[in-house]
C-alpha cells in the first residue's frame, strides 16, 4: 500500500546501486564491442553478456561505495538516499559495495586477462575517487574521464582481446577527453555547493576563467581527434560533424560566460555532443 503523496521507491540495495547508471555502463561496453568486431557467434554473444554484466556490476559497486563515503554530505544534500535515511547502514553499504565489486571482477575472469586487469583497476580507481579524488578537483575530473573511456575499451577487449582497432582507440580518447571537459564545466556550475561542502575543485582553486580555458582545451582535443576514423564512411562523418558543431557551441557558451546558468547549458551541449559522437561510430559500423 502506498500512502498518498509518497513516491514509489526502489529497495535500498537497488537504489544504492543506481540501476540506470549501471545500464549505461553496460551499453557502453556493447558499443565498444560493436565498433571492434564485424560479426558475432553464440560464444561471442555469451562473452559480451558477461562483459555487460561485469561493467554493470563494477559501476554498481562504484555507486555504492560513493554513497558510503558521501554519507555525511548526503545527510544535508540528499537525506532520502539509502544511507542517510537509515534504510541501509554505512557498514551494510560498504559490504554491499565490496561484494558487488568482487562479482564484477569475477565475471571478468571468464573473459580474458586484459578485461580482468581493467575491471580490477577500475574498481580500485572508483574507491579512490569516492574516498578522495572527487574532492580535490582536476585529478577527480581526469579519473572520471578515464573511467568513461575505459568502459568502451572494456567492450573492445572482451570482443577481440588486445587487437584493438584505431576506431575504438579514437572513441575511447574522445569519450575521455570530452568527459573531462564536461566535468570541468560542471564544476563551474556547482561552485556554490562545492564551496559549502569544502571541495577543492579546479574553478574554486584557480578561478572560473582558467577552468573554462582548460575545459575548452579538452573539448578541442576531442574535436581534433574526431576526423581520424574517416574510413568509417559518410554515416560517421555526418554524425560526427553534428557532434563537432555541438561541442564548439558548448565551448563558445562557456567562453562567453562562466555563470552557473551558462555552465549548465554548456554541460548539456557536451552531453548531446557525446551522444552524437556515439551515434557517429554506430552509423559508421553499420553503414
Q: Over the alpha carbons, how many angstroms does the gyration radius reach?
A: 20 Å
Strand content: under 5%
Largest sheet: none
Number of separate domains = 2
- How many β-strand runs? 0
What's the helix count? 13
- Here the CATH topology of the largest domain equals Tetracycline Repressor, domain 2
**Broad structural category:** mainly alpha
Q: What percentage of residues falls in helices of 4 or more residues?
A: over 70%
Q: Which CATH-level-2 architecture of the largest domain?
A: Orthogonal Bundle
Global geometry: flat
Mean pLDDT: 87
CATH superfamily of the largest domain: UbiA prenyltransferase
Instruction: Tell me the span between the first and last alpha carbons.
Output: 51 Å
Order of helices and strands: HHHHHHHHHHHHH
**The CATH top-level class label of the largest domain:** Mainly Alpha
The low-confidence parts are: 1-7
